[in-house]
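TA notes, week 10

Several of you asked for a full example with nothing omitted. So below is the full record: C-alpha cells for the whole chain, then the designed sequence directly under it. When grading your own attempts, check the secondary structure regions first.
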C-alpha cells in the first residue's frame, strides 16, 4: 500500500494562493457564490475568459472540492455549477474582504467595476 505525501505549503498564505491562484478562479467563485450558474452564464459574466480556460478552471475547482457540477439528463444537456455547500461559508469569509478592498481600490483609483454596472 502506498500513500501520497501530504501537500506542503511555505506559509498559511501559500495554501489559498496555490488552490485559488490564477487570473480566473476567484472571479468564478465570486459569481458562483451569488447563485448556481451554467457554463454559458459564466462565459457571459466573464467575457475575457476562453472556453478552454473556463473549463479548465472549473475542473480544477471541482477537483479541489470547492465547486460541484450537476448534470441534468436532457436534450440539450444542462450542466450547473455551484459552490460546495461545505465550503460556502469559508469562501464567503475569504472573498468578502477581497471585494471590500476591491471597492476601496477602485474608488481610490477611479477604476470601474463592470459587475456593479449591470
Amino acid at each position: 500500500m502506498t500513500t501520497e505525501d501530504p501537500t506542503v505549503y511555505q506559509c498559511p498564505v501559500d495554501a489559498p494562493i496555490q488552490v485559488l491562484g490564477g487570473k480566473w478562479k476567484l472571479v468564478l467563485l465570486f459569481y458562483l457564490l451569488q447563485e448556481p450558474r451554467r457554463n454559458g452564464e459564466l462565459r457571459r459574466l466573464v467575457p475575457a475568459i476562453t472556453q478552454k480556460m473556463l473549463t479548465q478552471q472549473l475542473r480544477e475547482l471541482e477537483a479541489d472540492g470547492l465547486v460541484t457540477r450537476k448534470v441534468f439528463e436532457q436534450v440539450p444537456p444542462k450542466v450547473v455549477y455551484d459552490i460546495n455547500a461545505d465550503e460556502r461559508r469559508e469562501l464567503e469569509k475569504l472573498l468578502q474582504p477581497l471585494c471590500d478592498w476591491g471597492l476601496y481600490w477602485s474608488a481610490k483609483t477611479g477604476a470601474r467595476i463592470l459587475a456593479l454596472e449591470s
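The CA atoms of residues 23 and 50 lie 12 Å apart. Use that as a sanity check on your answer.
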